[in-house]
């Protein structure tokens, strides 16, 4: 709508204050209002970057009512930025209902690219990134947590979770219990901060590492679980040999398709196994 204001979704740093974009700073300066998850927390960021735009709270407990008020302001022509305490708003953070309402009311939503713990962790973990499944926080209750982990048992994509320092050891214990001690995981902690650490190993080893030093359980965590590996034992030896040969010459998809046709096997399974040859 011509006279409507716009809603800007603005990522903020997840630790290192240098991880804010020039566009984010300009946008936060130019908008009429900044909707923040915690205004007191965000005030420090505003002071650091000398931004004097007015802050208004929008969090899980007032989002529905606040969204209605803010949409009225947007319809009056005000521009608004949405920020969360850290990282990209809406990613395990408030804002979904608000953005949904903006779109339903023909208000333009402009998301800015920027910091996000899940993507930062994935990009440095050394696990497959061609496909990943973001699950946010696991449920706190043991039974529900177990159910979610059971549901990813045969997931071939890398699974990404957020976790708190209070629960990281229990959660890795649950991974050992449900997915087995041999499942490969990467624990990324304190990304972009002084004590940034990536621990990579089996779930059993990660559990030992977490218990080896109480400092290992401090900070903010992203837990990544390697995807389920296809069972090579189900594939005839000759098919595996041919796949290996073809993988040296052809793109993985093409190699998988040829072997699948030749042996009447599933293309996707062969593709996954082909990728595992290289990992
Ligand atoms: N919206 C944020 C984002 O874009 O990443 C995530 C918000 S969520 C409420 C907070 C969780 O993200 C933390 O509990 C932790 O699991 C993860 N996280 C945030 N900052 C992190 C960091 N610097 N290092 C590791 N994990 C982080």
From TrEMBL:
Keywords: Cytoplasm, Methyltransferase, rRNA processing, S-adenosyl-L-methionine, Transferase. Gene3D superfamilies: Cobalt-precorrin-4 Transmethylase, Domain 1 (3.40.1010.10), Methyltransferase, Cobalt-precorrin-4 Transmethylase, Domain 2 (3.30.950.10). Its EC number is 2.1.1.198. InterPro entries: 4pyrrol_Mease, 4pyrrol_Methylase_sf, 4pyrrole_Mease_sub1, 4pyrrole_Mease_sub2, rRNA_ssu_MeTfrase_I, RsmI_HTH, SAM_MeTrfase_RsmI_CS. Transmembrane segments: none annotated. Residues 234-276 form the RsmI HTH domain. Residues 6-206 form the Tetrapyrrole methylase domain. It catalyses: cytidine(1402) in 16S rRNA + S-adenosyl-L-methionine = 2'-O-methylcytidine(1402) in 16S rRNA + S-adenosyl-L-homocysteine + H(+). It comes from the Bacteria. One of its GO terms (molecular function) is methyltransferase activity. The keyword S-adenosyl-L-methionine applies. One of its GO terms (biological process) is methylation. It is found in: Cytoplasm. Catalyzes the 2'-O-methylation of the ribose of cytidine 1402 (C1402) in 16S rRNA. Belongs to the methyltransferase superfamily. RsmI family. This is Ribosomal RNA small subunit methyltransferase I.
